[in-house]
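Field reference: sequence -> structure
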Amino acid sequence: MIVPAFLLSRLWEGLGGTLPGIDAQRRMAPRPRPGWYPGRTPPEGARDGAGLILLYPHRHHLHVVLTVRKRDLAQHAGQVSLPGGAVEPPEDPIAAALREAHEEVGVDPGAVTVLGRLTPLHIPASGFVLHAVVGHAAARPDLRADAREVERILEVPLDELRDPARVLVEQRRLVGRLREVPYFDVDGEKVWGATAMILAELLWLLGTPPDPFGQAEEDSGSDPV
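Structure field:
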């Protein structure tokens, strides 16, 4: 096993350089992804959202916090997501991600060291542009689920996301047609859509990009989604 300190160092270096962006995100994008036009400016009226990818040590492994959203929410009900929400001016995405993580899962903002930000991702279904903030906590946080928004909290070992056996594809009907949808199979949940696409870029920076469609040979070519 690669020790967490080495992973954090590699991640810090990657976040400070040129991000893989679309090449990484499309690894876990549904085929085709409705309303997504990689490389284009998000449509007028799109709102900024922020999510926190919080990494922390537990049992000698780095873990990441994800949430299962309540089943009665208006958007993305029952889906797995990063702790996050809308950026409220005059906040920047970092401040919003830390605030939302505190509200949704009880993470103390003062305990988080921000490592950097991933490539913003437009989410057509909600009209948001998601800004993923990567942070690290030196110790496992005392997590508490917000009963209004969070069905359950997932503490996912990073090694599970890096395991090719956890990366699967299924057919799912989205916006009126069947699509090939890749997902991470973790803790009895399917992590797909924007959350999976964001995590794909994180894993790319760690040297283990997911490859559900055998896309490695396509990364220098045209966009398949």
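Note: The radius of gyration is 16 Å.
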